[in-house]
Specification:
The protein is of the alpha/beta class. It is 37% helix and 19% strand. The chain has 10 helices and 12 strands. The strands form 2 sheets. A 9-stranded mixed β-sheet has the order 5-12-11-10-9-8-1-6-7. Strands 3-2-4 form a 3-stranded mixed β-sheet, with no helix packed on it. The radius of gyration is 19 Å and the shape is globular. It starts with a helix and ends with a strand. Bound molecules: S-adenosylmethionine. S-adenosylmethionine is lined by residues 91-96, 99, 119-122, 126, 170-173, 219-220, 241-244, 247-248.
Length: 314
C-alpha cells in the first residue's frame, strides 16, 4: 500500500467506519491521515499490517492514548520500534458476538439441528448464537446473556434461537478466552467509547469458557475440508464467516469460495462488498460502511459492522 493509499485508508476508516460510532477513532484516523510523519511510519509496516484499527488496537494494548490525537502522535513517535514490532506480529482479531444477531434470521430458516463451522473464528464468540439473547426492536428472542440489540428493517425477526449440536472454529491464530493476554488483545481491539461491547465481550467469553468449542489452528482453504468432515451426520453443516476475507488475497478468496460451494450444507457470509463482490446490490442505507449478509452466495441484507443493524434487500 503506497503512502497515498494509506492516507485514504485512514480517511475511509474515519469517515465510513468510525463516524457516528466512535468520535475518538474518527478524530484520530483523520488526524493520522493529515500527518506526514505518521503516514511515513505506517508505510514502513509490512503490507497487510497497515489497517488503522490494528495500529490503534496495539497502542491501546500497550496502554497508550487514543482519545487525544496530539498525545497519540507523541506516544507513537517515541515508541515506534516497540509499536511496529507488536503490530507486525498481530492480526486484527476483533471478535464481536453482536454479529450473531445478523446470523440469527438466516440460521433460523435452515433445517435444524445445525453443525456450525466458523472460519476466521478468533476466540469463537460467534459460535454460540443459540446461547445469547436478542432484542430486535420489540421482539425478544432467547433469554441468554449477553443480550444483543439489533435494529432490523425489511424482514421479520426470527421467533427462536437455532438448535446447535456441534460447533467448531478454524483460525490462523485461535484466541483462548481463558488466557488473560488473549482477552486483553480482544479488549484492546474494541473501540474506545464502546463500554457496552466490553461488557458484551466479558459475558460472551464466560459462555465460551463454560463450554469451549473445538477451535483448530489452520487456514481457511487448506484446512477447511478436514474440519468440515468432522461435522456430525444428521445435522445441517453451516460454514460461516464474518469480517475475515479482507485478510486474504483475491486469488485465495476465489479458492475459498470454490471450496465452500463444494461442501455439503450451507454457506453464510458477512463480508465487505470489496471482499465478496455481488452484482446489482442496492445502494447501502447511508454513506457509512456496510457489509453484505449472504446465504449460499445470494446477497440478503446490508449489515453494520458490529451487528447493531441490518437492512434486508427488498
Ligand atoms: C476480524 S476477525 C473476525 C472474527 C469473527 N469472525 C467475528 O466476526 O467476530 C478475523 C479473523 O480471521 C482470521 N483469519 C485471517 N486470515 C485467515 C486465514 N487465512 N485462515 C483462517 N483464519 C484467518 C484472523 O486470525 C482473525 O481471527
Amino acid at each position: 500500500m503506497e503512502r497515498v493509499t494509506i492516507e485514504q485508508s485512514y480517511v475511509d476508516f474515519g469517515t465510513r467506519e468510525a463516524r457516528g460510532v466512535s468520535p475518538a477513532y474518527e478524530r484520530l484516523a483523520l488526524a493520522v491521515a493529515r500527518d506526514e510523519e505518521l503516514l511515513a511510519l505506517a508505510a514502513t509496516l509490512p503490507p497487510g499490517k497497515r489497517q488503522p484499527n490494528l495500529l490503534f488496537g496495539v497502542v491501546r494494548l500497550l496502554g497508550g492514548p487514543v482519545e487525544d490525537p496530539a498525545a497519540f502522535r507523541e506516544y507513537v513517535l517515541e515508541r515506534w520500534p516497540v509499536i511496529s514490532a507488536e503490530v507486525s506480529t498481530r492480526i486484527t482479531q476483533t471478535n464481536e458476538a453482536g454479529r450473531c444477531a445478523l446470523l440469527l434470521p438466516v440460521l433460523a430458516g435452515l433445517p435444524q439441528p445445525l453443525a456450525l463451522l466458523e472460519v476466521g473464528a478468533s476466540a469463537g464468540l460467534c459460535l454460540y448464537p443459540d446461547r445469547y439473547g436478542y432484542r430486535y426492536g420489540d421482539r425478544v428472542v432467547g433469554s441468554g446473556e449477553p443480550a444483543l440489540e439489533c435494529s432490523v428493517t425489511g424482514v421479520e425477526p426470527p421467533a427462536f434461537v437455532p438448535d446447535v449440536v456441534w460447533r467448531a472454529g478454524l483460525d490462523l491464530n485461535p484466541l483462548d478466552v481463558g488466557d488473560p493476554a488473549d482477552v486483553a488483545w480482544l479488549d484492546a481491539l474494541i473501540w474506545p467509547e464502546h463500554a457496552h461491547r466490553r461488557t458484551r465481550l466479558r459475558a460472551a467469553a464466560a459462555v465460551v469458557a463454560a463450554d469451549p468449542p473445538l477451535l483448530v489452528q489452520g487456514d481457511l482453504v487448506d484446512d477447511l475440508p478436514a474440519l468440515a468432515a468432522r461435522a456430525p451426520a444428521g445435522a445441517t453443516l453451516v460454514v460461516f464467516h464474518s469480517a475475515v476475507l479482507y485478510h486474504v488475497s483475491a486469488a485465495r478468496r476465489a479458492e475459498f469460495v470454490d471450496l465452500v460451494r463444494g461442501l455439503p450444507g450451507h454457506w453464510v457470509s458477512i463480508e465487505a462488498p470489496a471482499a465478496v463482490p455481488f452484482a446489482g446490490l442496492p445502494e447501502p442505507p447511508d454513506g457509512t460502511h456496510h457489509n453484505v449478509l449472504a446465504l449460499d452466495g445470494e446477497p440478503l441484507a446490508w449489515t453494520r459492522g458490529h451487528g447493531q443493524a441490518m437492512t434486508w434487500f427488498a
